[in-house]
Protein 1
Amino acid sequence: MPPTSRRLQLLAGGASLLIVPFLFIGGPDWSSGPVYKSAWNLGHILLFALVTLAVRPWQWLQGWRLWMAVTGALLAAGIVIELLQYGHNREVDWRDLLRNLIGSWLIIAWRPLFFSGNRKNAGSVLVATLTTLLLVSELGTTAQVAARQFQMNRQLPALYDFQREEPSPFWSGPLTPSEAHAPEGSKSLKINLGTETYSGVSLHNVPSDWRGFATLSLTLFNPDSRPLSVTLRINDVEHDRGDNAYSDRFNLRLDLEPGVNTFTIPLATIEQAPDQRPMDMSEIRRLGLFATRLPEPRSVYLLALALD
């Protein structure tokens, strides 16, 4: 092995050993923001590119056998890693399996093009191009997440842009965009409430820094002729990473009469809601609306949600 190749192998092996522990320690948790999670996930590509450089599987296999063996081995290793991560209170992300493969495939595909002893052909260039496109796709996903978060933070004092066609990057739960009962030129979010113990939605991707504002305002429309009670809950990052105690967050019952209902809540009240500490108004993490043990399914429309 040429001295340069040997040094590259040793450097790749050393870097891999330094990175491997971070598969199980540190990094984002379930309450971390989307940009941090997305950027961290790119580390899988780097790690398995380095591992491939260190192991040099082309020493033993060539052609399709090399590709099949590496792919099979990485899929098996990736499944084991994801299961071990789950045991260490980390979220399972099966797309990490693809990221692992992309890292290794990049090295296997591009190595022949930079190794002067191998003749470059159209097939090798095509494979290298395809693996690069997979990398670009992952980088593009992270860039899209970053752009979306930047736009979200610029939309303050609005906490949600009701013109969005797809609420799932921001909300979880049974809700759909609607034009019903919305102000002219805007849209609403229809929230479908079921009969389970707790039924509702959560704004889990929300501008986090509420400092500098005085009140939270939300407008809901009750389409039925009967009143409806829902609960508004708000918590910060510390609550998410704690034991999620009821007394450690803001909870407020909202009694909705038929038609339009607007509520204005002082942020000072929200800040002082936890029993043992003030809420961190620079790290708001989640806002939820839910009903409890409804006798029958109901619907409610969220028309506005903003700070002032």
Protein 2
Amino acid sequence: MEDARAQIELYSLHLRAGHSVPDTTLSPAERQRAATFRSREAARSFVAGRLLCRSVLSRATGCAPQSVAIALSPEGRPYLPDHPDIDFNLSRTADIVALAVSRNGRVGLDIEQPGRLDEAEIRHLAPLVLSHEEADWLRQFSTSQRPAVFLALWAGKEAVLKCHGRGLLDDPRPIATGMPRTIQGIQSHTHNLRDGSQIHRGLEPRFIWAVTIENPVTVPAWQHQDDTACLIRTHE
């Protein structure tokens, strides 16, 4: 029987317009960091990410949400110094924060909002992100399909780089994440990388996603939350 601890868990939290996000579980340093954001929406997204993170990781570690020690690597990647057997990764769009938690090695997660790029933006970004082979493959799709396909490729590469720990500090072009043959292929796609890690891609109602796992596992269904209050009540 497969060990349940060898799986990863995927969570998302939808930030509804006009709703504030409580910062009661955040550390003083996290509250201070949230106060430095110039944009109110960026600050709210950061606080929501930490709220989701602490709520989920408290169950994984057995600690109260406020007591979960979260440190940053020199590259800025959050990790749990007291629980090296647990890895996690966060990603955000305009109104979604998402979290991947792994007990089976390192994990990297990226989510992207469908429709956030137009054709001109894709033409500008493609040479910076895609290999020549991927760029040729992208041009085979229609103009209406190209944004979703490009974001699926983008998400896959960023998930790989985040799993490795440096994110977009490294060049994404050499990262080959596999190319689904059809537009339907981005809705559910798995690719084994040369280093032994595995990437899963998919499409949820509100976002395109990709997750990279150091050691191959079966990816479970997403667990979606639409209310921050439920994260608070869980620990009361």
Protein 3
Amino acid sequence: MNKKNYKKIVKDTISMCITQAPNGTMKTAVKGVKLFWGVEASLPRPLVYQSGLFFLLQGEKKGQIRNYTFVYDQDYYLVFTSPVTSLCSYNASYEKPVCGLFIEFCKNDIREILTKFPMTDKTKSKRHDHSPRFETINPTKVNSNMRIAIHRLLTIINDDIASQILGKSIHQEILFYALQDRNNLSLRSYYDRNNTNGKIDKLIEDIYLDIAQPINIQNMAKSVNMSSSTFYRIFIDKTGQSPLQFIKKLRLHKARDMIVFDGMSVGQAAHAVGYESQSQFSREFKKYFDMPAKEYHRSSESYWKFSD
């Protein structure tokens, strides 16, 4: 790959983004691929990372879960196999915006690759530490093959015909390189929903899809064939938060999306995510986001949003 050509396509992509808006996200012509960018620095603020691969084309972002901090940039990417709530901060300006790619995946994407590329001893992770799962959110090095694939992806993201013909194969190629990396064992666990990590990923997905369902720890533990105490401990190891804390944050994030992007009233959003009391919702929303829900407006809010 010609480094000069890669830098040019990245520069052109960033220029295209900031002509749309100072900060934002945008679907591309390639299914499951989005661009995100910003020209304004941000102090730590609440964010939900959706399941997928996160690559930065320029800049650096920092995430924090409890006391654990992770950083990624154009040389390191992130992998999430289920929604993760985190604090996020970054530096950016018009002269040097932050810009990146979000590539989503599903179980079938991984199955399709693993049926042709079974796990071998060479590609198995050799990590045997017992640190909490959220502390294994370690940015992974972007290897040369993956960068070449990203370069090709950037050349077609605005071409409808090329995206239809080549988009899926490039998407699979990037996911293939991620699966090859021994540090990304969580991707294989995501495919195997019979192991503990895969079961929790599936549970979190189900919760996110039906966020208004009543919170019942015993029922959640039963759904993954665990005792309540074992489930509680493993869930905290996985997410860094108790089930109640985690679900409350997911609800507040979903409600914010509904208010900002769907034009819902505060009461409608509160009810849609499972709150029976609007006053309780308003108190928790303001405490978490440091701003009253009613002050969120579509025209003024700028934050990363990764959803369909």
Protein 4
Amino acid sequence: MTSFMTTDKSYRKILEDKLYDPYIHKHISYPVIDEEKWKLLLFLIEQHKSLTTVQREKYIISTMLVQIALDTHDLVPIKQRADTESEIIEKQLQVLSGDYYSGLYYLLLAEAGEVQFIQTLANAIREINELKVTLYYEEQLPLETWLNIKTKLNASLLVHVANYLYGSDLESIIQNWLMYQRLDSEEAHYGHSLLRAEWEERNDKATSMPLIDEKLIRDYEKAVYSDISNLSSSTVFMEQFFYSQETKQMRTSRL
């Protein structure tokens, strides 16, 4: 645990130094690090023993820069026109800061000659953008299809990194774990998942979303444990991460 905390602190300092820009953060909020994705990324990279110390740092920092760039762009309002000059400036800075973070990842890896990892992250970005386009233009998606796309979107970046390092065995468990964490966290903070509000807004509240409740959270939880039981010999090390992160409620239901 001490080793992990030291590693976390070290990489976090490097990331925060990369992110800080006095002009940008004078006008918009400092970017938020997705802690669940951060912890999972650290574990995935640190467990790959053939990577050099330099590669580990570059892979972790560049991947999180991309994640933060994507999250920053998601904060930009969809409406075509801003109401005030300050809103216009904020919107422009959100877009530019997302582009800035994305450019940093490319520069970081290009300087290190990590062409293959650049392509890995670029493929993830392309898939994420394609999924977002589908959500935007396909207005009559069934709930199950919509949830499946949201699940893929939530995990796509880390899935691509895991595929690059370990093959495709971890795709399902990463998707299910990160969606479980999102739903459980939102339920704890808001009393319901934000996915429910998003679905209802998409459908003008014409269709309720009864699946976004405790049952859906438990379904993802069960899927995680099912995936754990199906890990191959080359990826069974991931048990250590998931069992170390499980909540008391998860542990009780498992036992």
